[in-house]
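Exercise 3.2. Students should predict the tertiary structure of the chain below and write it as structure tokens, then compare their answer with the key that follows.

Predict this chain's 3D structure.
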Amino acid sequence: MSHEREQQELEREILALTDRLIENTIEISMLSGEELERKQAEGVNIVVQLAAVLEAYLGGSPEHFAQVIKELARQKLPDENILASFGEFSTYLEEAIHHGLRLYHENRPMPEDITGAAPTEPEEANDAGAVEEASPVPSGAGGTGEECTVTCDEPAETVTTPAHHSTNTGAEEETVKTDNHVEPAAGLMPSSWDHEVDVSSPPEPAPASEQASSSLTPETGSATGPPADGENCLSAADTSENQASIPVNDTDQDHWQAALKLVFPEATIIKNHTVKGLAFSYYIPEYAIAIDLNPTDKKETIWKEYYCRQENIRLLSIAMQENSRIRHIVRSLRLSLAQNISQNIS
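Answer key:
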């Protein structure tokens, strides 16, 4: 593999690990007890991995990586005002970086560990990755120079590579998408980060994600799936919503599921879809549409929007009325889709 390709692979890995660190830190800000401690240890391990990749990419001494990691995270984050809703996000991020870099430094292989004796030539020290002077940080990767102060007293206990964490506790869960999507990066520069991930903050807590794979024509109320398919999915609802009877239970949730089957007759409807600790009322994988009924927690809504934006999922946040009839639900779905698409176009 050429040097240029190796650098590109390292860049992709750095960006992917940065995304994982951000997601982990946001999850930590919403947890407590043993689950909080477990997630904190996972965040420390992510920083350990990130430090190893940064050293391979930049060289230099790990103590200079704290500002680099914070700058990488800042470039990937939504608006700072929105992040204020997550409370101790900045504190948890500082703690993960501090403990992760300390753990990496303690376990970092030194020339003595490899050769059995201290190196006598500068070339040997350089080959082992123990250069005296830190390599310059790429433009845009430097931070503000603030010190990384922490208050966390819980040390990490492991340096094992963590698997990408996801939870799946929904009663009727069928499939869960867990892998983060990371676009190839041209380089670790602000210009490449800007088009890598949309970091603009949504004006309202309920709008859906950007870059959806499905589309809807408001004039006709028709929805289409991914561009490759082009299959009309709302036509069945036009002919079926006046049927005499539909076999559903007496709960609004079941009425919603029946309405979704009318709107998307060939699609899989997953009820109570849970991923990364986030619960969605329904998820339609073929069209990458997640539906959140009666959202009340603003903090959770912001995190859902961030996750869906990262995964190119269209999020529909809908207020569920009591005793809604199926035909009314179908209209609500169409209206929400039309509004969502108009927001993305504008």
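Discussion points: Confidence is low (pLDDT under 50) at residues 111-253. The chain is about 45% helix and 10% strand.
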